[in-house]
């Protein structure tokens, strides 16, 4: 058995050279040990959308996100419909004291509040509400379609 420590951030040449092989081991592990289906969402099915009513992606997905939030809250937390309406959704997961900022040495998406949307077959199945800050990423909340609970999207989101 040979064990190698490979720098992942910033990615070293060894990391880049072994990435696909490492990913395949990870994927097989998830499928065998955690019973993940082979069609679990991939990086191509995840969108990082700034929380801003000025952003076209955010505006176009707002109703679908709010509806999913209500379905999740009523199913998982047994909230009443009045507890998880559009106003409650906006207050809880859209209004943020953080202001968007694009620093020259910062991430391409900038700093601020984001909805990390998980899409499957043209439909949002989960949303991770996150704050991207200069020295950390803060997971604020995650909600998902209870019909897809078998995908363990909370675990997937945390690892991602």
Whole-number mean pLDDT: 85
What is the global morphology? globular
**Helix and strand string, N-terminal first?**
HEHHEEEH
Rounded Rg: 18 Å
Quantity of strands, as a count: 4
Low-confidence stretches: none
Put simply, the count of helices is: 4
Q: What is the multimeric organization of the chains shown?
A: single chain
- Through-space gap between termini: 28 Å
How is the largest sheet built, in terms of strand order?
A: 1-2-3-4
The largest sheet is: 4 strands, antiparallel
Provide the number of structural domains: 2
Helix content: 25-40%
Helix and strand composition category = alpha+beta
β-sheet strand percentage: 15-25%
Domain N-end rule aminoacyl transferase C-terminal: 66-160
GO molecular function: arginyl-tRNA--protein transferase activity
Keywords: Transferase
Protein name: ATE1 transferase
What does this structure look like?
GO terms for molecular function: arginyl-tRNA--protein transferase activity. Pfam families: ATE_C. Residues 66-160 form the N-end rule aminoacyl transferase C-terminal domain. It comes from Ptilonorhynchus violaceus. This is ATE1 transferase. This protein is 36% helix and 21% strand. With 160 residues, the protein is α+β, with helices and mostly antiparallel strands. The chain folds into two domains: 1-42, no CATH class; 43-157. Strands 1-2-3-4 form a four-stranded antiparallel sheet, sandwiched between helices. Strand 2 (112-120) and strand 3 form a beta hairpin. The two termini are 28 Å apart. The model has no long low-confidence stretch (mean pLDDT 85).
